[in-house]
Amino acid sequence: MDLHELVAALPEGAVLTDPDLLIGYRQDWARDPGAGTPAAVVRATCTADVAATLRWAHAHRVPVVPRGAGSGLSGGATAVDGGIVLSTERMRAITVDPITRTAVAQPGLLNAEVKRAVAEHGLWYPPDPSSFEMCSIGGNAATNAGGLCCVKYGVTTDYVLGMEVVLADGTPVRLGGPRLKDSAGLSLTKLFVGSEGTLGVITELTLRLLPAQPVQSTVVASFASLTAATEAILGITGTLRPSMLEFMDSIAINAVEDEMRMGLDRAAAALLVARSDAPGEFAAREAQIMVEACEKAGATEVFHTEDAEEGEAFTAARRFAIPAVERLGPLLLEDVGVPLPRLGDLVTGIAAIAERNDVTVSVIAHAGDGNTHPLIVHDPADADNTARAHRAFGEIMDLAITLGGTITGEHGVGRLKKDWLPDQLGPDVMALTRRIKDALDPHGILNPGAIL
Amino acid sequence: MDLHELVAALPEGAVLTDPDLLIGYRQDWARDPGAGTPAAVVRATCTADVAATLRWAHAHRVPVVPRGAGSGLSGGATAVDGGIVLSTERMRAITVDPITRTAVAQPGLLNAEVKRAVAEHGLWYPPDPSSFEMCSIGGNAATNAGGLCCVKYGVTTDYVLGMEVVLADGTPVRLGGPRLKDSAGLSLTKLFVGSEGTLGVITELTLRLLPAQPVQSTVVASFASLTAATEAILGITGTLRPSMLEFMDSIAINAVEDEMRMGLDRAAAALLVARSDAPGEFAAREAQIMVEACEKAGATEVFHTEDAEEGEAFTAARRFAIPAVERLGPLLLEDVGVPLPRLGDLVTGIAAIAERNDVTVSVIAHAGDGNTHPLIVHDPADADNTARAHRAFGEIMDLAITLGGTITGEHGVGRLKKDWLPDQLGPDVMALTRRIKDALDPHGILNPGAIL
Known about the structure:
The structure is a homodimer.
Chain A: H1 4-9, E1 15-16, H2 19-23, E2 40-43, H3 47-60, E3 64-67, E4 84-87, E5 94-97, E6 102-105, H4 111-119, E7 123-124, H5 137-143, H6 150-153, E8 160-167, E9 172-176, H7 188-192, E10 200-208, E11 210-211, E12 217-223, H8 226-237, E13 244-249, H9 250-260, E14 270-276, H10 282-296, E15 301-305, H11 308-319, H12 321-326, E16 331-333, H13 343-356, E17 360-366, E18 371-377, H14 383-402, H15 421-440
Parallel strand pairs in A: 2-4, 3-4
Antiparallel strand pairs in A: 1-2, 5-6, 6-10, 7-11, 8-9, 8-10, 12-14, 12-15, 13-14, 13-17, 16-18, 17-18
Keywords (chains A, B): FAD, Flavoprotein, Oxidoreductase
Protein name (chains A, B): Glycolate oxidase
Pfam families (chains A, B): FAD-oxidase_C, FAD_binding_4
């Protein structure tokens, strides 16, 4: 491939072709063994670089895989053989406007960096994927990322008021802006959020912010059965809106306890960590209501703290569950969600799938919104085990669809889950998706193989 | 036009062709004098009726204007000569699920009816257009309607989790569902919200609900100047998130006082009505902070009440401002919004436009989110006055665009504002909009003339 024209259109050093450097851009955290080798990586420094890259790629029909921090779990940034990986990691500016309570951020900034920048103004950007220290805000927008606070505060799309996005042919457009209300024309901003780089490349985001989150009360409860735990979850969400409501099963509890020695109940079948950020003493009041819901559901142990640091420690324990379980072996990380009343059916169904396929599956969940992360432990050196793990991976998605749920709550479809998408959406919605894709990317250069 | 095939495909009585009955479906509240006369009105009873109508219209290339309650203010439901008006007024079912905190509503239900149905379960559907007693939930979704609570609680799109929508060719599709998190495929649900019937006809909505709103504290403040009032607005929104923050100018104050005799300060240049729904005594605490912000900005009079009924009376007064000002003469109702720091420039600019064009313009506003409703009084019997009123109408939109704002915050573009849309969005975004429209409605039968 003749890259001279591309190199000439971009700042010095923006185009990487050294095979050693390309390796680091082949995979995201889905670690797809079938990842391709790109012809080049473009590390854009500004919107003009993104536009120049897409103009060139559009003219020459070269596939472009947009990439944020590469922390995606569905293979949305898996490189394509002979294509360009277009990285936004160097686009890292942010400005905060406390009066409109908005921030304008470039896509390469990490989620945690956005949170810190706005916190300096007493403000808060809520969405908080567990990977918030290492995932980019551009990737968050591309996947409509979620997190722990979503049960009360919603997901990324709820905080994106506007964006600059470069279309497939290299045309940059501005959509929306720092206005909470705007009914002028189609809701294009919202269409690009969650489009996983298949419709355009986001080069700037206008984010809605909230006042800094108040101190939270924390409730930790252990249960002897999954039934009791799911009953407590419904008891809590039926009464109030917790600011967090997380679930870990027995395997996750023990894996975390192995590493962190916090005194978690190793005999428990399930652990819930719930929080309230209601103002002042209302947080303690809400915590008390959650304590009672857990006790009513038959919790074996319930602990309640107003101490922010102690509460953070339990939240950190929950966030640490994925790496902790990973010590048992490489993970296939699921992301299925169901309407809340079906959560119990999902969790028990997953246990049956694990048993049937003779694989270890640990379930952790953003329980308050029905979004679970079954962690399928597998051994890549064992072909049979790996095959069974992948079978379980698919069966869990099938189960979620049967229960009226989704194959992905917050990670995106990427390449890993695209074979299941038609089962969830049906042929008519797939056709509708294809029509929009073809209208916006007629040559199919943008992230080919993702979603569709 | 041969309607036999259409009549045969629908239940008895669903197709109206009596000219006397058609008259009521020619206009919405924009009262467009150039409204067409439809060939027929279809009053659908179910999704199948909508699908049959669109299949027929698609085959015969007949324009279809979808219509909810007909309370739109931008002419989005203005009938087209020889077309079909497709009314959803008879589709009025709702089911509420307190566990997932969602409701599934048909489009013909009024916003107030949705609010009442969910309130029976202790739940709350926030979006509250001033017309909530007479606008339909389907129309709300089609225009991404707003209201008074949006300053804290967001707009319609923030509450639409899923929908059934019938595409231009008559294919019904289901998008999203009762899941707070769902990253499976493109964000199609959000694309259809605010599309004003140009991409499909919504036949069912899955709505996110909140726990019932707590009792509110209310602050009413009068100001001798617009500058002082806008300073108070920024003082309030810079400190906390009011559940409501409304503005009326002198003309509106006096028009309301003429009708309601509440003791409003007739000498004031501006009146703010602000509320807090923070839990328990925090509402009073937030109200106190708002009182101090108003005093600091130089309010001439500040009143504060914890009495819910009294607070509702002031909210009702603000809601009544439009009909009250209408007693001065027929209104051209504007809906421009700006980023909050430009609100003062917008309000003073509107006064200059009114003076220059020698017309009366009263400004009321959802001040907390920068969304204003300039009310242009005109006399249809006076051609010169009417021309000046329309000139002012356009100049106000031009001004909003210049200030980085929007020509419509919550009413939609419809037919009334479409000539200004390219000025706000620019040619590239218009072209993008056109590509999506053409992909989803290749024969252009859906609400032709609206938005585009």
